[in-house]
Structures are given as structure tokens and as C-alpha cells.
Amino acid sequence: MRCDDMRHAPRRPQGGFTLIEVLVALAIIAVALAAALRATGVLAQNNHALRDKTLALVAAENRMAELRLSQVLPDPGKQDTPCPQGRLDMVCESTYTYSLNRAFRQVSVRVYPRGQPGMTLAELSGLLANVR
């Protein structure tokens, strides 16, 4: 084969990736990692909120048990009681109302973080009886 023939001979493609292909692959990986990071953040926030609501429900159940064990029928109205659970500083707001039977009181316990009465974490309702 002469030199003239080598200039015009078709070149065989060489192995490897072009710069554009590498940049596109890196962009796809970056988008996937950003989505995974965002999903992890949302999961952590949901876990935190679920833990707070679970602790608030425990606080409401404890308050209801205290009221039932006291065997006292409180007058209708509201009463705030501190009810911390774990590292959460919460308040249990107990609302008492008359029921159809005067020997019972309807009670609703609402739990919220101290200083944030508009943010209800849990609410529990039940009846108190004056049975001895």
C-alpha cells in the first residue's frame, strides 16, 4: 500500500467516550444524586413529625389516665397542664363539658408544643365517671 492510499483509507473508530458523552453521564448522575438527597431530607422530616405526634399521643393517653384515676368530676371548662415527653416540652389542654348524664363528664385532651397553641399534635376524647 502506498502513502497516497493510506491518506484516503477510512479510519477505524477508536474506543472510548467523547467529552460530550462523559458530561451527559455526569449530569444524569448529578440529577439522580440530588433527587436521592431530597428524598432523604423529606424522609427525615417525616420521621421527626411522626415521632412528635407519637409522643403527643402518649402524653394525651397519660393525661386521660390521670383524670380517670383521680375519680373527680371537674366543672366544665378548660385546664392546661404541662405534659413533657422525652425532649418535647408540651402542654395538655383538657376541656370538660357536661354529658347527657350528669354523673359523667365529656373530656377532650389536646396536646400542643409549649408556646404554640395553634399547632395540635394529638387529640383524645373520652368520658369521666364518678363511680366509687
TrEMBL record:
PTM notes: Cleaved by prepilin peptidase.
GO-annotated cellular components: plasma membrane; type II protein secretion system complex
Pfam families the record matches: N_methyl, T2SSI
Subcellular location: Cell inner membrane
Keyword tags: Cell inner membrane, Cell membrane, Membrane, Methylation, Transmembrane, Transmembrane helix
A biological-process GO annotation: protein secretion by the type II secretion system
UniProt record similarity statement: Belongs to the GSP I family.
Biological function: Component of the type II secretion system required for the energy-dependent secretion of extracellular factors such as proteases and toxins from the periplasm.
Subunit structure comment from the entry: Type II secretion is composed of four main components: the outer membrane complex, the inner membrane complex, the cytoplasmic secretion ATPase and the periplasm-spanning pseudopilus.
Protein name: Type II secretion system protein I
Organism, as annotated: Achromobacter aloeverae
Taxonomic lineage of the native organism: Bacteria, Pseudomonadati, Pseudomonadota, Betaproteobacteria, Burkholderiales
Gene: gspI
